Amino acid sequence: MPNLSSPVLIRLRMSAHDAHYAGNLVDGARMLALFGDVATELLIRLDGDEGLFRAYEKVEFLAPVYAGDYIEAVGRIVEVGRSSRRMEFEARKVIRLNPELGAESSAEVLAEPVVVCRAVGTCVTPIDKQRIKRGDA
Questions:
Q1: Residue 120, in any domain of the structure
Q2: Are 40 and 79 in contact (CB under 8 A)?
Q3: Contact yes or no for 96/66 (Cβ under 8 A)
Q4: What is the pLDDT of residues 34-54, one digit of tens each?
Q5: Three-state DSSP string of 94-136
Q6: How many domains does the chain have?
Q7: pTM, whole model, 2 decimals?
């Protein structure tokens, strides 16, 4: 996979407010919201403008996310057109609550992050909004 930009990473804890379903399960759409934030930073770094998210061409929900989990969302630009920017995203669980350790608030850092979601999408920065000029654009 070509890497046209440095990756952008956001890490945050899923709260009880993020839980949407029984058992404190977080709605998968929350991962897409994180990807939107990552995409915005990527566009600001590339174009000097927030741009617009146009479409996802692929989204895979791979593992559950619960309130209390820490999620890393990372993305990178893999293709640049005149105004379109194709991006790849991945969300990983890096810390999870584990009440089995003896307390309701017990948590553990996972030895290996668990990939919970992957996606590919396209954003657009209108040419008249691109404040950072590149020789190859």
A1: yes
A2: no
A3: yes
A4: 999 999 999 999 999 999 999
A5: EEEECHHHCCCCCEEEEEEEEEEEEEEEEEECCHHHCCCCCCC
A6: 1
A7: 0.88
